[in-house]
Amino acid sequence: MRILIRNLGELCITAGLVMLLFVTYELWGTGRYTRQQQDVLNKELLKSWQAPNVTTEKVKLGKGLAMIRIPRFGPKYRFVIIEGVDLADLRKGPGHYPGSALPGEVGNFVVSGHRTTYSAPFNRAGELRAGDKILIDTRQKQYVYEVTGKRIVKPSAVEVTAPVPLKPKDKPTKPMITLTTCHPKYSAAQRLIIFGELTGELPRRA
Amino acid sequence: MYAWIWRHLPGQWQAKTAIAAALILAAAAVLWYVVFPWLEPKIQFDRGVINTPSSSATDRR
Prior knowledge:
The structure holds two protein chains of two kinds.
Chain A: H1 2-50, E1 64-69, E2 79-83, H2 87-92, E3 95-96, E4 107-112, E5 133-137, E6 141-153, E7 175-183, E8 190-203
Parallel strand pairs in A: 2-3, 4-7
Antiparallel strand pairs in A: 1-2, 1-5, 3-4, 5-6, 6-8, 7-8
Chain B: H1 2-8, H2 13-43, H3 54-60
Keywords (chain B): Membrane, Transmembrane, Transmembrane helix
Transmembrane segments (chain B): 18-39
């Protein structure tokens, strides 16, 4: 009996240590993976931008599409946006919903990203205020979007990804951006949505 | 359990300590590189996508 209890205690302590290690993995180990992938994608993207322009440029799923910068999150804040929003895509960085508008295009450019784990690209999305800039670099242009609002919705609220957010039946007339991430932090119960619209475009700086 | 393992490790206490440390490191490595990457997508407490596109997700990968 005593041996049984001792073994049980040892198992509980071991399980606790394994869980601590798992938390470390979630918070730190996953971010390391994202940084590695971002480095690779960043190089690929810059290389493809230097290559001569092709008329029918189509980004493959899982590849880099554009670069996102958000000045409020500091000058070093920069992520390659991946085409696709699968689990595997979002592990590499924020992902563009295939089928939604491209940067600068009339319609809704929808990007989803992790709020925690995997480098947490949208960790501080809740701090964004109306008027904050979201810069999207593409091959030729840097598109300047400005935040117009935010909202917390249910995970099933597909209307926020419509060409005109929240008005699924309307025809889009201007280029907009929508960022989606989870809410609250460390949970998947709701989604935090940031809306924005295009206010300007500049030639891309290197 | 751990006492039993300790008794069955060969050598003096120095050797036992070294082997025990190696075993712990090996177990941690297996967890970190094999078990956790497998487990993590199944837990998914952080999912930012609207209306998880699970149908398209499965046929692509």
